[in-house]
Amino acid sequence: RKEVEQDPGPFNVPEGATVAFNCTYSNSASQSFFWYRQDCRKEPKLLMSVYSSGNEDGRFTAQLNRASQYISLLIRDSKLSDSATYLCVVTDGADSWGKLQFGAGTQVVVTP
Amino acid sequence: DTGVSQDPRHKITKRGQNVTFRCDPISEHNRLYWYRQTLGQGPEFLTYFQNEAQLEKSRLLSDRFSAERPKGSFSTLEIQRTEQGDSAMYLCASSPRQDGYTFGSGTRLTVV
C-alpha cells in the first residue's frame, strides 16, 4: 500500500468551473501537509501548506481531516494556467521537518 | 538567483559509467534532500542531510548510490555502474526549519 494515495485523473475542467480532489495518507503520525504543483517536466513547486483548520489562498482552498487521514484541494474559477499535476505531500512520521512522502499526483486539465 | 541550483540539467551516460550530480541549496537552509522521480510517479525519497550529517538513506537505495554534503553547503549524489533503471529525474530540495521545501530544477539522467 502506498503511503499517499491520489486519484490520478485527469480531471477535465471547463474554464471558470470548480474542481476538487483529495488524497489519503497512511501514517497517522504525519505532522505537516502540503499541496505541490508540478508542470510537465518541471520541478514541484509549493502551492500551499495545509492546516487542520483549513486554509485558503485566493482561488485555492485546502482542508485536512486528521481523523480520516485525508487532504483535499479545491480550485475555484479555474484558469487555463491551472492545468498541471497536483501532488499531495505529507511528512513522514512525527518529524514535521522530515522527509516528504509524495502521492503520484492528480492531473488537472482546464479547457477553454 | 537565490533558489536551489542543480547541475547538470541533463546527463546522458552509457550503462556501467559513473555519474555525479551537484546540488547547491538555498544558503540558510539546514536540511537538504534528494529525491528521484520517474514518469507518472511522484518523487521518491532517496536521502537527506541536516548540515553535513546524513540523517537517513532510503532502503530502496542500492550501494551504488552515495551522497555527501561535506561542509554543510552543497551536496553531491554519485551513482556508480549506472543501469538503465537509474534513468529518472533527480531532484534536490532544501528547507529551513519547518515549512516550505524548495526544489531545484532537477537533473534528468538517461542511461543508454
Structure notes:
The complex is a heterodimer of chains A (112) and B (112). In chain A, a hairpin with a 2-residue loop joins strand 6 and strand 7. By secondary structure, chain A is mainly beta. Helix content of chain A is 0%, strand content 52%. Chain A is built from no helices and 11 strands. Chain B is mostly beta strands and 112 residues long. Chain B is built from no helices and 11 strands. Chain B has strands at residues 5-7, 10-13, 19-24, 31-37, 44-50, 53-57, 65-68, 75-79, 88-95, 102-103, 107-111. In chain B, the strands form 2 sheets. In chain B, strands 2, 4, 5, 6, 9, 10 and 11 form a 7-stranded mixed beta sheet that branches. In chain B, strands 1-3-8-7 form a 4-stranded antiparallel beta sheet, with no helix packed on it. Chain A binds chain B through residues 4, 8, 32, 34, 41-46, 49, 87, 89, 92, 96-105, and chain B through 31, 33, 35, 40-45, 48, 56, 89, 91, 93, 95, 97-106, 108.
Short description:
Chain A is mostly beta strands. Chain A is 0% helix and 52% strand. In chain A, strands 2, 4, 5, 9, 10 and 11 form a 6-stranded mixed β-sheet that branches. A 5-stranded antiparallel β-sheet of chain A has the order 1-3-8-7-6, with no helix packed on it.
